[in-house]
Amino acid sequence: MTKGVQIAIGAAAIALLLGWYGMGQLNEGISFQYFQNLDEFSSSAPEMVGRTARVHGYVAAESIERDLEGRQVRFSVQNDPPHARGPVGETLTVVYGSLETPDLFKDGAEVVVEGQLVMAGGHPVFEATNVMAKCPSKFKAKAGLMAESGVEL
After folding, report:
1. Residue 132: which residues within 8 A CB-CB, separation 6 or more?
2. Nearest to 115 by CA among 125, 105, 100, 101
3. What are φ and ψ of residue 99, in 5° steps?
4. Closest Cα to residue 78, out of 52, 42, 28, 128?
5. How far out from the chain centre does Cα 142 lie?
6. Hey, which CATH number is domain 33-141, 2.40.30.20, 3.30.565.10, 3.40.50.300, 2.40.50.140?
7. Distance CA 89, CA 124 (A)
8. pLDDT in tens for each of the 153 residues of the chain?
């Protein structure tokens, strides 16, 4: 077998594997969008029941409840950070089936939750399979401190 034929077979195998992986992702209903913010998700909530989704938001103040016996964490997610002191607006109730939350998970933390929306007792509840807390931006904090001290950026 010549070197050119070997390269062609290898390239075809790689293309087939990539195509197979891509089709598997599409069949599972996972979109290529990283996440939706809470407003986008809420506007499409009726169609999202039972479908896998990722939702971005902030943990609402004093909403974290840890159920040790049920081994789950229940909290609410809101669209804007609580420290912005604006109106809370609409929230999404999230139930995470584990007590092991990220280190950065706390009131006001920026989070992305993965899971699906279900109807529980006539109310929508997001059953999370994964909770990711985002690291706060040090640049924004330093820029805010510099602006307060009169330093121009």
Report:
1. 102, 111, 112, 113, 114
2. 125
3. -90, -10
4. 42
5. 26
6. 2.40.50.140
7. 16
8. 899 999 999 999 999 999 888 777 666 555 455 777 777 877 777 777 878 888 888 998 888 999 999 899 999 898 887 766 666 678 888 999 888 888 888 888 888 899 888 887 778 888 999 998 887 665 554 444 444 555 444
